[in-house]
Amino acid sequence: MTDAKTKTPEISFEFFPPQTLEASFRLWDTVHALAPMEPRFVSVTYGAGGTTRALTHDAVTTLQRNSGLRVAAHLTCVAATKAETLEIAEQYSDAGITDIVALRGDPPEGMDAFEATEGGFGSSIELIEALAKTGKFILRVGAYPEAHPEAENLQASVDWLKRKFDAGADEALTQFFFEAESFLRFRDACAKAGLDTNRLTPGILPIENWSGARRFALRCGAQIPVWLEEAFSKAKRDGRSDLLATALCSELCTDLLEEGVNRLHFYTLNRPELTRDVCNALGIAPKARLQNVA
Ligand code: FAD
User: Fold this and answer.
1) What is the CATH number of the domain that holds 183?
2) For residue 288, what pLDDT is reported?
3) CA 124, CA 146: separation in Å to the nearest integer?
């Protein structure tokens, strides 16, 4: 439970687009379980390499029509020309979508580094500028508290984030991290660089599966503390991984809230249980029932 010093945070949830009928049901169950927490918005990712363009579009517009939630579409620069990318954004606008998470994107499987498509956006900054120019969207962007693997150092990540805000970004959602200190150090560095730190929202990964989370962390450069490795290997032996994950994630969020953070963005991986348990532990009670069920 949070103490009297901390306020109940505003929350948002990230989903990925389902590729099978079974996955569609799982996403819908997840939305059903989490919608009563009244998130500020939910977002739907865009597959690495631009692989889920149509699926993302379908998931975003279906959720927008049927869930009663505010839905943000992720959009990347990968594997599309500028005209194609802006056409996708236009289609979102036509469908009533007002929120975009604008990213450079990860390269397709098998490619090591991002390469701009001929005629495509060369960086996240170019994409943000172009979307901002339309005046149609609230723009959220990625930020990296432990530095992006391609950044020279943390300061380079901060400087690059500043350029995103200058280009028209409204808010930054961070990569996940395992210790509150990582976010707080980054927030301090952002404040020193003159950024409005109220526009930084920490990304939180409830650890449903430690080996998956570990793999993901290694890929995106999130630091893995030794104590965390040890805690999960012991919890696995004792069959208590879920309990540990809920306790650790709740503690991470509480530490952030005690430091004045008032918004959290959860990477749900289309599984509601841990996210819901953590929200409950933070004092976020279910409020509304999902309306207009499809
Ligand atoms: P940027 O922040 O633009 O670039 C990454 C880093 O590289 C920068 O921090 C900067 O230090 C450096 N850099 C890049 N270009 C330059 C330059 N020209 N000069 C100097 N430095 C430079 N990926 C997907 O494919 N689909 C998604 O839906 C998706 N959703 C995400 C959501 C969030 C909240 C986050 C944090 C990440 C998401 N990603 C997604 C992952 C993201 O695409 C990768 O991390 C990608 O490698 C970087 O994208 P970006 O827009 O954050 O890049």
Assistant:
1) 3.20.20.220
2) 63
3) 19
